User: Which sequence fits this backbone?
């Protein structure tokens, strides 16, 4: 499925409530969704060791999600060369 990443943020720290460490990348994406005219906005989180923050930039990506909605594959869509007439 093609998605568009429109924003990203790297969140890490220690939970005030539990004292547990957290570290993840939050991606803001738009994608097709059944019943929506146009595209739907969604936020997904990914592991920064699998998807390093520095290597993800806004733009079009080919993405695969598993049956629970977890992002399992992400690859930038390569720009097509212009066709000259």
Assistant:
């Amino acid at each position: 499925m093609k998605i568009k990443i429109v924003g990203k943020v790297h969140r890490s720290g220690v939970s005030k409530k539990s004292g547990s460490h957290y570290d993840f990348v939050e991606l803001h994406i738009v994608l097709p969704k059944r019943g929506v005219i146009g595209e739907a906005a969604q936020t997904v989180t990914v592991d920064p060791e699998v998807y390093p923050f520095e290597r993800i930039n806004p733009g079009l990506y080919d993405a695969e999600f598993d049956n629970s909605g977890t992002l399992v594959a992400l690859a930038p869509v390569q720009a097509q060369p212009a066709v000259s007439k």
Notes: Strands lie at 2-14, 21-31, 40-46, 59-65, 71-76. Residues 12 and 23 are 4 Å apart (CA to CA). The mean pLDDT is 92. The longest strand covers residues 2-14.
